[in-house]
Amino acid sequence: QVQLVESGGGLVQTGGSLRLSCAASTRTFNAMGWFRQAPGKEREFVATINWNGGSKYYADSVKDRFTISRDNAKNTVYLQMNSLKPEDTAVYYCAVGGLSTTSYDYHYWGQGTQVTVSS
Question: HEC profile for 40-57?
Answer without folding.
Answer: CCCCEEEEEECCCCCCEE
